[in-house]
Amino acid sequence: MKGFAMKKIGEIGWVEKEVPQLGSKDALVRPTAISPCTSDVHTVWAGAIGDRKDMILGHEAVGIVEAVGSEVRDFAPGDRVVVPAITPDWNSLEAQAGYSMHSGGMLAGWKFSNFKDGVFAEYFHVNDADGNMAHLPDTIDDATAVMLCDMVPTGFHGVELADVQFGDKVLVIGIGPVGLMSVAAAALRGASEIYAVGSRPNCIEIAKEYGATHIINYRNGSIEDQVMALTNGKGVDRVVIAGGDVDTMITAIKVVKPGGKIGNVNYLGEGDYVKVPRSEWGCGMAHKQIAGGLMPGGRLRMEKLMSLIETKRIDPSKLITHRFEGFEHVEDALLLMKDKPKDLIKPVVFIK
Fold first, then answer.
1. Handedness of CA 10, 16, 18, 22 (dihedral sign)
2. 200 - beta bridge partners?
3. Which of 130, 234, 261, 324 is the most buried (most CB within 10 A)?
4. Could you report the per-residue pLDDT of 262-297, keeping only the tens digit for each?
5. Are 242 and 176 in contact (CB under 8 A)?
6. β partners of residue 73
7. Nearest to residue 114, comparing CAs of 191, 189, 195, 59?
């Protein structure tokens, strides 16, 4: 089969590989829609997870089941499915402890384009299929569904990590596709004010549609100064970090109130240390809590998020700005994510 791969750090291209073999609990899926992610960019061009040789990229796909292992009960060839970016081993001790995304080791629930070939291929392998695939109803189109693989659950997890409560004032740093989903999730959780940090006009427009009450453009001055001005010097109750770099935590610590919480879902692809300012952290005693986590995967998570789409509580289709027809356009879509033109939020490639 043909796949689009990271050939080495800084180099991408097409490769030919054998179709994956199935274990008794596994499935083989033929993708019908895929989407590249900023994580793919960090992986290839920043070498964020180390060097990979001829590793097929991608972790966002919906598709049609091609084959299943002998012990798969709930899926059959021909089923239309969504597969999350994180596919844990559900019988692992880590899953039993409540951290399935780290099954087998830190971040090891993230298998696609990390520990095994990803979804930018004619076929891809899904481990523990009954636990890691979800049936995709006819009411949800492929483009919307592929946003469920990573953008929606990651953005929502940032809000879970920040523990947003009714009436909270929430700062969302970064309003790319993940941050936009954090804005939507914060609104669903009852935030009274949502401060969204970004500068691209289309992202700002969508952030407002999802519930942002204030836009903070970092080009107009420091984020800290703008937040403190808007909150009369008090700061915010919660911060979700969905963009930035290793220094972004400094901003989050400075603007969150004592007793406040910070949820980070930003993939830090470069830098050696995350900095916490000593004084603003109350010399270590301000009860300013920091949580960073990889999104949960699994079938139940997908089904619950799909129900929010079906009941029109969220509309992830607003994230999609670029559409390509044909597998040969995977590279074009990936390079869009790398170059980030001003009109980009998220591209989708449709495969016949």
1. positive
2. none
3. 261
4. 999 999 988 999 999 999 999 999 999 999 999 999
5. yes
6. none
7. 59
